[in-house]
Amino acid sequence: MPELPEVETIRLGLEERLLGALIKTIDLRDQKLTRGQVDLLTIKKLVENNYLVKFGRCGKNLLLFLSNGNILFWHLGMTGSFKISENIEEIPYLRAYLETDKGYLLYSDIRRFGKLGVIKSTNELKKGIDPLGDNYLYDNFNKLLTSNKVIKSFLLDQEKISGIGNIYADEILWKAKILPNRPANSLSTEEINRLFKTIPEVLKEAIKHRGTTISDYRDINSNPGEYSERLKVYGKEGKPCNECQGIIKKIKLGGRSSCFCSDCQK
DNA sequence: ACGTAGTCCTGACGGC
DNA sequence: TGCCGTCAGGACTACG
């Protein structure tokens, strides 16, 4: 579910509501959340009785910076979402929560693909270039496009560019007018330029509209994202393209469905 | 080094 | 109504 724009929307919401809050308790109801890398007692020791001094994001990871210098990273997987509440509400699929002096941060996750852990530095997260970060520079981007792997899979590879998921990969390629099955190293200079520019454009526009809701995604105030109304190709197979009236097609690439307009995209 | 398929989970939807 | 297959915003592993 949550790709970069959704995680960023959540980050902004948390900043508004929980910046400076004191964490009293962390509880994990689903032990799978840490993938066996840390036990609950250790997590508690590292996290409890700390202030939330900053909220960050790294690709699709949400980062909670603690006053003891540790960072709690939280990946929402496919269906993770947060809600802030005065009490522990027994919301469905509640998998973890933080009790703070500014309220409870409840985490629910239907499919249990979410993951969290405590790190000392963001270097510990495997990650590529964040398209909204300082390292997103043309030369760095260009250097990555050397393989013949299809461009759609390249965009989804978090170790190259981090934050793009299946929805935005399709939307970006449509806007950049590039077919999803083109080998990455076959792009012309002009196409690379277009792609380089389009990636942050689409992501920023989506953040402006507080992300995309297909079914599960909600921001921390339980509001759906409004970028769903602006999608041009994702989930639009069989419908006419906005731009040219051609019919949107759907194919599988790297095991993921990919929607595109074969007239607009070359 | 690459692509692909299987795996982890749970729920929704369509076809018969 | 019920059963079954397929699919879903992600990402890891194993295999060829």
Automatic annotation (TrEMBL):
Presence of the UniProt keyword Disulfide bond in the record: no
Class of this enzyme: hydrolase
Signal peptide: none
Residues forming coiled coils: none
Gene3D superfamilies: 1.10.8.50, MutM-like, N-terminal (3.20.190.10)
Keywords, in A-Z order: DNA damage, DNA repair, DNA-binding, Glycosidase, Hydrolase, Lyase, Metal-binding, Multifunctional enzyme, Zinc, Zinc-finger
GO molecular function, one term: zinc ion binding
UniProt GO BP: base-excision repair
Family in the record: Belongs to the FPG family.
Subunit structure: Monomer.
Protein name: Formamidopyrimidine-DNA glycosylase
Organism: Psychracetigena formicireducens
